[in-house]
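@channel sequence for tomorrow's demo:
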Amino acid sequence: MSSEHSASRLYYRAWIGALSVLIAAGLASYLRQLDYGLGLTGMSRDVSWGLYIGQFTFAVGIAASAVMLVLPCYLHNAKAFSKIVLYGEFIAISAVASCMLFIFADMGQPGRVLNMIFYASPRSIMFWDMISLSGYLAINAVCAAVTLRAERNELPPPAWLRPIVLLSIPWAVSIHTVTAFLYCGLAARPFWFTAILAPRFLASAFASGPALLLLILRAAGIHIEPGARGKLATVITYAMALNVFFVLLELFTHFYSGIGHHPLPPVFWISAVLSTAAFFLLLFFRRHLIPACALTFFALWLDKGLTMVTAGFNPSPLGVVTAYTPTAPEIAIAAGIWSAGALLATVLFRRATAVRAYGSTEVVEEVLI
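structure tokens (generated this afternoon):
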């Protein structure tokens, strides 16, 4: 066994071990929350959404971003994307699974999720959010499974798969649009009450998702065609330009109109500065693509995953400002959920890599484990 192979096995086991520790810590904290209630978190009567919903919103964007690989591959026949579109679908599957776990954590009692099924109402945005996420998960699971089986058998994907793949394009847009409707339909929350929220969500998703994919492929040592790499970099650049523009529009609206009389959270300003820096890095220093992708992902996570929720609750309709800080158990649960999603993605990426390298997963399992 080569030293390079031994190092790869060591890194893999260390990664799995670290994820397992975080998942165990998150599960332990969740059991405490299940027993004690949501009072274990930093949420309150006035700030009833917190870290869980923020991470849910960000994860939905990561899932929706798979469309940026499906579009060029299946609509424009871009061959350079054919080898990485499967990885995009794997990220979408893992992100949607994380979304569902965040909803379970935020509900407090898991049984409450069943109310959306037993008492389904077409007038409820939560009902449509459940439909869109469940359908998107099923579509990506079918596409990924059939594509991987075809590669294992060294055959092209069946013709009936193409309509399903094309269906995933509008469905991907719908999942983040419906998520935005959860926010912007609340007239008493001026920070969210804007028709531009859905386009802003989509722009940030189409930047953060491809950026994450490039980071993962680089970390996993998976080859990506230069053409696909360049096109993804262009997509991230344009999406970041739109996101920065939308944020500037929001700032003008709120400050010029005087709707918000409290200073925006410092994290928001950090995100805005980092987003602008990432955009200029992508625009003028494309050779530093990996650092630019890392900066893009972190900046958008700060914006959508941390500040989007809490800024909407302050001030309240009565003008009261209520502080919100995630507690240690809350952070542990969120980290555990992200780790569970990362573990699922790792298993799926490993299986795809094994099939492409050896024709089956059995050989790799014998060598690496």
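heads up for whoever presents: The domain at 9-368 is CATH 1.20.1630.10 (Formate dehydrogenase/DMSO reductase fold).
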